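Comment thread on ticket #2218

A.B. wrote:
> Attaching the input chain for the structure job we discussed in standup.
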Amino acid sequence: QVQLLESGGGSVQAGGSLRLSCAASAYTHKAYCMAWFRQAPGKEREGVATIDADGGTNYADSVKGRFTISQNSAKNTLYLQMNSLKPEDTAMYYCAAEDYDCYSGSLSYEYHYYGQGTQVTVSS
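C.D. wrote:
> Ran it. Output below, let me know if you need it in another format.
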């Protein structure tokens, strides 16, 4: 059973940075798509970024140039480096995983595995 555990959330002022981590246990698939989603109160869940086993990435327009998704060499930890944070980035951030390569719509479709989330709060 794959488990995803996020960490690294917190409170920061606008313009600051945070780095989120997602530890994936028991994940052995060679092909995969991993993603970060976020959901603010009263808003729909939003896909933030995705990465596949080959390192291919995809970003939401709202975070391009500010956020970077990456993974460690063992490919069992996912990261989201968030720079130049804005109050509108405030949300619960979740990591997700699927057992095949990312395909068109990877920021929108449902994934098989989700973590419990980590809260990010950006104050103005």
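A.B. wrote:
> Thanks. Noting for the ticket: The chain has a mean pLDDT of 94.
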